[in-house]
Amino acid sequence: MINKKMASELNTQLNKEFYSSYLYLGMSTWCANTGYNGSASWFMLQHEEERMHAFKIYNYMLNQGAKIELLTIEQPDINYTSLLECFKDSLKHEQMMTHSFNELCDLAIKQKDHASYGYLQWFVQEQIEEEASVGEIISKLKLVGDGNGIFMIDSQLSQRKPDTQVGA
């Protein structure tokens, strides 16, 4: 069983994961409404992945006997002016999530909660992949500028496959 402080912070992280899911659903909607169907598909998979991350935390908390509190999910601001801006916002969000998981790891170390620290390492590794993936897309979008290359990149983004290892 984890202590109350760790449980509280994990509960906050659970809420952040649900917010992430909601944010990516909004980004998917913006892309679909703007005609970027490949990017809409990419963000929809991201939405589903973040939801699975939330349930991964949820199940860990249940298994640890922690009390779960479902908090209010803030409405995301999804008023973008370009696909590049949308992906830059995604990277900024992922960097914030990385910081949040690092803070959780620091807390686990401070409290000598080896179970939670080991558990959180999966998320730390996942964040490395998340930031790299979005960073690569941003680099491509910057290379093509506002030209027709955006449509090629958008088409490539529709090829993303669901990550079957997320809920493991």
UniProtKB/TrEMBL annotation:
At which positions is Fe cation bound? Answer: E17, E50, H53, E94, Q127
Q: State any GO BP term from the record.
A: iron ion transport
Chain coiled-coil ranges:
none
Tell me which InterPro entries the record gives.
Answer: Ferritin, Ferritin-like, Ferritin-like_diiron, Ferritin-like_SF, Ferritin_DPS_dom, Ferritin_prok
A matching Pfam family: Ferritin
Q: Which residues form the Ferritin-like diiron domain?
A: 1-145
GO MF, one term, reads: ferroxidase activity
Which key words are in the record? Answer: Cytoplasm, Iron, Iron storage, Metal-binding, Oxidoreductase
Q: Which reaction does it catalyse?
A: 4 Fe(2+) + O2 + 6 H2O = 4 iron(III) oxide-hydroxide + 12 H(+)
List the subcellular locations.
Cytoplasm
The UniProt entry's GO CC annotations, sorted and at most eight, read: cytosol
Task: Please indicate if the UniProt record lists Cell cycle as a keyword.
Answer: no
Instruction: Report the Gene3D superfamilies cross-referenced here.
Output: 1.20.1260.10
This entry's Enzyme Commission designation comes to 1.16.3.2
| Primary role | Iron-storage protein.
The text of the family note is: Belongs to the ferritin family. Prokaryotic subfamily.
Q: What is this protein called?
A: Ferritin
Organism expressing this protein natively: Candidatus Sulfurimonas baltica
